[in-house]
Design a protein that fits this description.
Length: 151
């Protein structure tokens, strides 16, 4: 029982959004049934909402903090801080597009299966990376090939 609790807590900590419980499948339950699809749609929607709120906070922060410092070092520090925030938001903007694409896959009943080989990606992998499009084996192979090409 203790290992079940540790596994549950590890899965809960791995979710990309706080406040959502990990999905616990029932014995004999069909993969990517309506409950599972609803669970992942909820994760994706909450994750997108969280990212959009962060964008709003950044815009507000930049408006409030924008100052014309007379000291060049202070001005440079502020510009660097803003540049870092904007880079982070740009990555999040790309992630939001990927989340939207994944929500469309959920709606089209094309979610949870590997694009490369067609097998189940797996509930635990999808909870950690809800936008995953490949099973772990195909993704690992793809990354190895990319490293070989880059070398």
């Amino acid at each position: 029982m203790a290992t079940d609790n540790v596994t549950y807590l590890a899965r809960k900590a791995a979710l990309p959004v706080d406040g959502i419980e990990p999905y616990i499948p029932q014995s004999g339950e069909e993969y990517m049934n309506e409950q599972q699809l609803a669970h992942f749609r909820h994760i994706l929607a909450e994750w997108k909402k969280s990212l959009m709120e962060e964008v709003d906070r950044t815009v507000d922060h930049m408006k409030e903090e924008a100052s014309n410092f007379s000291d060049p070092a202070d001005r440079a520090t502020q510009e660097e801080e803003f540049a870092l925030e904007l880079r982070t938001r740009d990555r999040e903007r790309k992630l939001i597009r990927k989340i939207d694409k994944t929500i469309a896959r959920v709606d089209d009943d094309d979610y949870g299966f590997c694009d490369a080989c067609g097998i189940e990606i797996g509930l635990q992998r999808l909870e950690v990376r809800p936008t995953a499009e490949m099973c772990i084996d195909c993704k690992t192979t793809q990354e190895i090939k990319e490293k070989q090409i880059a070398s």
